[in-house]
Design a protein that fits this description.
It is a single chain. The protein is of the alpha/beta class and about 425 residues long. It contains 14 helices and 13 strands. It has a 7-stranded parallel sheet with strand order 3-2-1-4-5-6-7. Helix 1 packs across helix 2. The protein is globular. It starts with a strand and ends with a helix.
Length: about 425
């Protein structure tokens, strides 16, 4: 039995926390696991709500004595609730993470293994993650942590300016790369940062897409473990194909990056071509993007074929996915896309942008990936008008879903540790 520290910046109803909880659940019965959190004042941790949302059973005692509240992180949380420039919010986040690492560097010596489950800088700040490229063969790289570390990265882009990550930068995404140099300098002063890779670190990506970004930027080998999708909860709920609604479901918070307006546009154009389809939009509004949310909600009010469902319970989400034939995702350069995996597990046929790790989830089937709205509609038409092709696509998707099941994830994680 090993003493393992699992770290994450904060616990929220999002994909990062979902993966974190899956890691803890996979290890807590065989090892002593502590959870290190940089939670802010005002952010309460409701373990039951998180477990219910993710379909996990993480024991609350893993939080142990390593729960910490940073005043600067409280400021970050507060700023996240009001409209401030993204660069300001990100700068505060970076400094908060540096303080987080500074406070807990001494704690790491008490553990046999550290697993960083979010974006890298929280525990592995001094290993690989910096805003500057480096040569991993540099002989001056001597300042290593003695504790072995697994870096499981979901979203490396928002912290780094290396050219390898800029492929995911689009006009509707905040300019995360323009962080003033003095912020990086301050972080290095706060923490004894090593900008080079550490021989005690294992780097794990959530898709081939993310791994390629890592390897291009940092010149190091990267393991790939797909995030887990709770396939089992869909098995008894799938509605027979011929009894499903000829409609689409899209899932994600209302934001420019999720780009629900593009989904609505696609449905409108499909209907213009004579297809009687409709759309359900599932997801919370986001206080940072009220103008965008207002546009989406106005579109929903003006039509009888687009419905805003808001945030659904896990049971309600399973039901709506299992009752519809098609999924639509409009987030470009998604690193993996758990919701797409859920659509596949529900027996749907999802259409995704031809970018990012999400193409791996749909087995890179040509008809299911699109470059623009016209391409999406053309692909939908090819699938919709060919029942045999629909059946074959669903067979391919379902047969490959085990790659990202909870059991596969847990087995891969144990193999990596052992």
């Amino acid at each position: 039995m090993a003493n393992i520290l699992v770290a994450i910046s904060s616990l929220k109803l999002d994909g990062h926390t979902s993966v974190c909880f899956e890691i803890v659940e996979a290890l807590q019965d065989d090892h002593h696991v502590d959870l290190l959190v940089n939670q802010a004042n005002g952010e309460e941790i409701d373990f039951q709500a998180l477990n219910d949302s993710f379909g996990t059973n993480v024991r609350q005692e893993v939080l142990s004595d390593n729960y910490t509240v940073s005043k600067l992180n409280s400021l970050r949380w507060t700023l996240g609730k009001i409209p401030v420039p993204d660069k300001v919010n990100l700068a505060i986040t970076k400094v908060s993470n540096a303080i987080f690492v500074r406070e807990y560097q001494s704690v790491l010596e008490n553990y046999d293994l550290v697993i960083d489950t979010e974006r890298g800088p929280h525990i592995g700040f001094r290993h690989i993650y910096s805003t500057l490229p480096y040569d991993s063969t540099d002989e001056e790289s001597t300042n290593h942590l003695s504790t072995p570390t697994i870096q499981y990265s979901n979203t490396p882009i928002i912290y780094y300016r290396h050219n390898a990550y800029k492929i995911t930068k689009k006009s509707n995404v905040p300019d995360y790369f323009g962080i003033p140099d003095f912020v990086d300098w301050l972080c290095r002063k706060l923490v004894d940062i090593n900008e080079r890779t550490d021989p005690n670190s294992t780097f794990v990506a959530n898709s081939n897409f993310t791994a390629k970004r890592f390897e291009e930027a940092h010149n190091i080998p990267t393991e790939i473990i797909y995030p887990p999708v709770n396939i089992g909860k869909f098995e008894t709920e799938r509605v027979p194909w011929d009894q499903r609604e000829d409609g689409f479901v899209t899932v994600g918070r209302l934001s420019p990056r999720k780009n629900q307006l593009k989904s609505i546009q696609a449905i409108e154009e499909m209907r213009d071509r004579g297809y009687d389809v409709h759309l359900h939009i599932v997801g919370d509004t986001d206080e940072r993007y009220t103008d965008f949310a207002d546009q989406v909600l106005k579109k929903c009010e003006d039509t009888d074929y687009v419905t805003y469902e808001g945030r659904l319970s896990d049971k309600e989400l399973v039901a709506i996915l299992c009752e519809h034939k098609f999924g639509i995702h409009t987030t470009e350069h998604e690193r993996f896309g758990i919701v797409i995996g859920e659509m596949v597990a529900a027996g749907m046929i999802p259409f995704v942008p031809n970018s990012g790790g999400q193409t791996e989830v749909v087995n890179q089937i040509p008809e299911l990936t699109y470059d623009d709205t016209d391409d999406l509609i053309d692909n939908f038409e090819k699938v919709y008008t060919n029942l045999h092709r629909q059946e074959r696509i669903r067979e391919i998707l379902m047969s490959s879903a085990e790659r990202y099941s909870k059991d596969t994830f847990a087995n891969n994680l144990h193999s990596l540790i052992e």
